[in-house]
């Protein structure tokens, strides 16, 4: 598969790699959700971050923060009675990044809904950086990463969805999203394919 993208106009979006979503002692794991896919993902994600920094691709961390001021009645209803009211609360351990520490030149975008484009500065950041292609990574594949990828596509960004740098709470949910994205909203690729494709880009594209 030949990937068409330009590192000069691309950004790596890392969605919700936070303790409450990823850590075995985080909120979702305590609710008996399976976070084992995260451990499979992390080494590849870390390598992807390093590889993108080598070609000056901006790294944008998406961080979910929940607080009373953004918790509408409709938003709370999504829990359907589940005990997740402490999920990624402001200024808590659960909201902190998991195994990652953004560099001073990385961008952090705070979100309060599944999609990182809803009521955030993400689109403004991407336009300012002249970004055309979104390299999508993070958790959960089928919820926040997919929601962000879909909205990005609707806003005319090209989407490359990293199959091995995303993780869900079930393999079935993960695979269903990959199929949907690849058919309707972008291109699914592995981090290895993206990294290798850099070598095949025309001179001056890096």
Tell how many strands the DSSP assignment holds.
6
The portion of residues assigned to helices is 25-40%
Characterize the largest beta sheet: strand count, sense, and whether it forms a barrel. Answer: 6 strands, parallel
Name the structural class.
alpha/beta
Shape: globular
Order of helices and strands: EHHHEHEHEHEHEH
Are there runs of 5+ residues with pLDDT below 50, and where? none
Q: What does this 3D model show about the protein?
A:
- By secondary structure, the protein is an alpha/beta fold.
- The protein has 8 helices and 6 strands, in the order E-H-H-H-E-H-E-H-E-H-E-H-E-H.
- The protein has helices at residues 19-22, 27-30, 36-54, 73-77, 122-128, 141-154, 171-185, 191-199; strands spanning 10-15, 59-64, 107-111, 133-139, 158-167, 187-189.
- The model has no long low-confidence stretch (mean pLDDT 94).
């Amino acid at each position: 598969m030949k990937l068409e993208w330009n590192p000069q106009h691309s950004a790596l979006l890392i969605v919700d790699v936070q303790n409450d979503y990823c850590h075995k002692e985080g909120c979702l794991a305590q609710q008996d959700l399976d976070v084992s896919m995260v451990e499979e993902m992390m080494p590849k994600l870390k390598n992807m971050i390093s590889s993108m920094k080598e070609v000056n691709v901006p790294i944008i961390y998406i961080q979910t923060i929940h607080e009373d001021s953004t918790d509408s009645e409709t938003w709370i209803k999504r829990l359907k009675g589940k005990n997740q009211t402490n999920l990624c609360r402001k200024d808590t351990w659960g909201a902190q990044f998991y195994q990652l520490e953004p560099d001073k030149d990385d961008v952090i975008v705070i979100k309060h809904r599944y999609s990182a484009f809803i009521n955030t500065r993400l689109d403004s950041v991407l336009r300012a950086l002249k970004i055309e292609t979104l390299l999508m990574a993070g958790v959960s594949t089928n919820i926040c990463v997919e929601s962000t990828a879909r909205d990005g596509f609707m806003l005319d960004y090209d989407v490359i969805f990293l199959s091995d740098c995303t993780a869900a709470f079930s393999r079935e949910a993960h695979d269903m999203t990959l199929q949907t994205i690849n058919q309707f909203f972008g291109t699914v690729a592995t981090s290895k394919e993206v990294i290798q494709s850099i070598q095949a880009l025309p001179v001056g594209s890096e």
